[in-house]
Amino acid sequence: MAPAAVSAESSGTTTPTTKSASALTQAGIKHMRAGSSTQAPLDASLMTTELTKSPRAVPEPESPEVLAQKTCTDHMVTAKWTVESGWEAPELKPYGAFSIMPTASVLHYATECFEGLKLYRGNDRKLRLFRVSRNCERMRKSAARIALPDFDPRELEKLIKALCARDGAKWLPKDRPGFLYLRPTMIATDAALGVQRPKEALLYIILACFPDMSKSLGAPAPPALNGTVNGDGHAKPASSGLKLLASNEDSVRAWPGGFGFAKVGANYGPSLVAQGEARARGFDQVLWLFGSECYVTEAGASNFFVVWRNKETGRLELVTAPLEERIILEGVTRASVLQLAKQRLAKSIEGIEAVDVVEKRFVMDDIISAYKDGRLVEAFAAGTAFFIAPVGHIHFRGKEIQVPTEEGESGVYTRVIKQWLMDIMYGPEEHEWGVVVDEVA
């Protein structure tokens, strides 16, 4: 089966590709497809199965094991690729370590990409994935950006579903709605040193136990959080929600022409120093800014949204950074928030005022101005790990912004959008985005 075509990307509300895609990424896709006629394609129908002989106990939700984020389910899926033969038959086998050479490309040149999505146990006892096809399409784009092999996204989706069907029944019991975190990953295992296009790669998929990260993580903060700031700049916010520390000019997460749009490991490692500093000062995450103008981009590894009243028109707006410069990740949750808001908040509903959905560049001064004018309504982060997480506090170079949370724990729009998504993920609303997985008993 030939790989599915990469179509044109819009503002994040339809199929994930981009009409403004860089020539470099498109060249990578063309190069990968050029050899597909002589290489075996990724084919889920060839998958072999070996069941574990040492099954492990399922931890309780929010237990120390889950909070440690190290526990995976009993099985994983792997598939090897070589430049000579293409994709070998995938394997569903016991979860465990695998061996790569010390000279493997991934260890030296960051030739690695991955995806993050969740498997849900719904209130109706069914297993569901959320818009899994978008994750598979995005992983193909990420692979192209770092010269990893091409694949048909539909075959990756089949492999994901196979693992979920196998381990979902045990690790998400029917009497306990919840989720597992899915991590499809591809690494270059080519054992040759030298900066060159990898000739060998490994695709693998794992399911991990993960905590609920949609609220403040309880970072090690100074004592007595009373809504002020210590002389050393430590946060003492009184409001609920995530606490964000705006990045400094000397700390940049992504830049135009780079790879901020791709979910590659090299996007994350360099951000850990800033994240560690934020946690040490009592914040949950970094609010990433770009340029001397301080354009607002992302919150940690999540997309960032703000609701404010437009100064000129007086209308409420739901605002987030645009995709055109390719310095933010084209989040699946981001696209879903935008689409639902456009469909369901175009008019006032149940006493909730309508909002205009806007994708545009905005700067920290815009947020500060809205805050001072009383036009700032709420803010939230959106992503797979954090889901929809209200933001309660932002520290920006000596300035403190207490973001309103009208309902105490959350703002009205944050709550409503989060509930709509949860209803799709957990089953109360039947929707095409909620993909039911037929589990193996």
Automatic annotation (TrEMBL):
Reactions this protein catalyses: L-isoleucine + 2-oxoglutarate = (S)-3-methyl-2-oxopentanoate + L-glutamate; L-leucine + 2-oxoglutarate = 4-methyl-2-oxopentanoate + L-glutamate; L-valine + 2-oxoglutarate = 3-methyl-2-oxobutanoate + L-glutamate
Enzyme Commission no: 2.6.1.42
The keyword RNA-binding is annotated on this UniProt entry: no
Coiled-coil ranges (or none): none
Protein's UniProt keywords contain Transferase: yes
Names of required cofactors: pyridoxal 5'-phosphate
GO cellular component: mitochondrion
Alphabetical list of Pfam families matching this protein: Aminotran_4
Gene3D superfamilies hit by this protein: 3.30.470.10, D-amino Acid Aminotransferase, subunit A, domain 2 (3.20.10.10)
Domain of life: Eukaryota
A molecular-function term among this protein's GO annotations: branched-chain-amino-acid transaminase activity
Major enzyme class: transferase
Modified sites of kind N6-(pyridoxal phosphate)lysine: K263
InterPro entries in UniProt: Aminotrans_IV (IPR001544), Aminotrans_IV_CS (IPR018300), Aminotransferase-like (IPR036038), B_amino_transII (IPR005786), BCAT-like_C (IPR043132), BCAT-like_N (IPR043131), BCAT_family (IPR033939)
Residue ranges, compositional bias (Polar residues): 8-25
Gene Ontology biological-process entries: L-leucine biosynthetic process; L-valine biosynthetic process
Start and end residues of each stretch annotated as Disordered: 1-27
Keywords (A to Z) from UniProt: Amino-acid biosynthesis, Aminotransferase, Branched-chain amino acid biosynthesis, Pyridoxal phosphate, Transferase
Family: Belongs to the class-IV pyridoxal-phosphate-dependent aminotransferase family.
Name by which UniProt lists this protein: Branched-chain-amino-acid aminotransferase
Organism of origin: Saxophila tyrrhenica
